[in-house]
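so im writing up the methods section and need the Sec-independent protein translocase protein TatA record in one place, dumping it here so i stop losing it
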Amino acid sequence: MLRNGLEPWHLLIVAIVIILLFGSKKLPEAARGLGKSMRILKSEAKAMKDDGAAPQPTADPETGAAA
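--- predicted struct ---
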């Protein structure tokens, strides 16, 4: 019975429930917002990765200022 977990008809039922809950008018707006959020997340993750690759400035222990 639970051999594959999700079967195609499960996904169909989930899609129908989502459409009934949110309505067909709000779904494109929600998808647009989700896409925008994903683009922002990707750009921030890339920026963090690029910042991590750059050498970090070391602090001078006497003055406390970055070199």
